[in-house]
Each structure stands twice: as C-alpha cells, then as structure tokens.
Amino acid sequence: KPEPKRKSEPKPVRSEALTLLAALQREARFVDFIQEPLGTFSDADIGAAARNVHRDCGALLERLFALAPATEQEEGSETEVPPGYDPGRFRLTGNVAGDPPYRGRVVHRGWEATRCDLPVWSGAESATRVVGPVEVEIG
Can you give the pLDDT of all 139 residues of the chain as single tens digits? Predict the structure, then answer.
C-alpha cells in the first residue's frame, strides 16, 4: 500500500525588496553606512567608507542586474520621443506641451537591467524581515 503524501509546510514568503536590501547589507554594509550618524566623522573618514560601499554596491548590482544605459544616445544629444511612448521608459521634463512626437535633449540616459538574478531566500519565518543578522563573535 503506498504511503500517504505528507503535506509539506509552506515556505515563508519574503519580499524581494528585502532580499535585495539584505544582499546590499551583506556584501557592502549599505544599511550600516546609511544608518550611521555622520556628524562626528571627518569628511576624509566618510569619503573612505563611501568609497568601499560604492565599490561593493556597484559590484553587487552588476552581478545581479547587469545594468546598462536605457538608450544608446549620449547625454546632451538631441532625440525624438515618439507618439505612444512608454512613460516607464521616458520621463519628460521642461516645457512639455502639445502632442508627441516631442523633440528634446537627453539629460540622463536612464538605466535598464539586462538580467535579474536575485538570491533565493530560504530562511525561517522568524527571519523574513531581517535585513542583517545579529553578528556575535565567540571566544
């Protein structure tokens, strides 16, 4: 007689935003840097810490998202925004009047993720909102 199938416990659900924030903390100490009150530190100390956080956050974003400019056009170049444009791809600023097509100057090339490889979270229910675990040095 076959064994009855056991119902497996559902895995805890965690927001992908928290997974990304946890990765930024784990690999670049991003949350530590942002949460640190900087009033007592010299500009040189802040700059040295920012350089490391900047480098490590950049490496993580490259690994997870392979960010690329959203357009090949250079900043400062003239461009045309076509009728039916996607407002998720184009943000129009300045004197926007009338109907497209619009002519303007590229102020920022935007960013596009060429992949999305977020880590898969496999923790327990009690840790679904933990962004950085408590660190304890033993001995």
Answer: 677 777 777 778 899 999 999 999 999 999 999 999 999 999 999 999 999 999 999 999 999 999 999 999 999 999 999 999 999 999 999 999 999 999 999 999 999 999 999 999 899 999 999 999 999 999 9
Closest by Cα among 69, 59, 68 to 115:
68
CA distances from 94 to 59, 104, 107, 111, 136 (A): 34, 9, 11, 21, 53
Q: What residues contact residue 84 under an 8 Å CB cut-off, 6+ apart?
A: 100
> d(Cα 98, Cα 112) in Å, to the nearest integer?
28
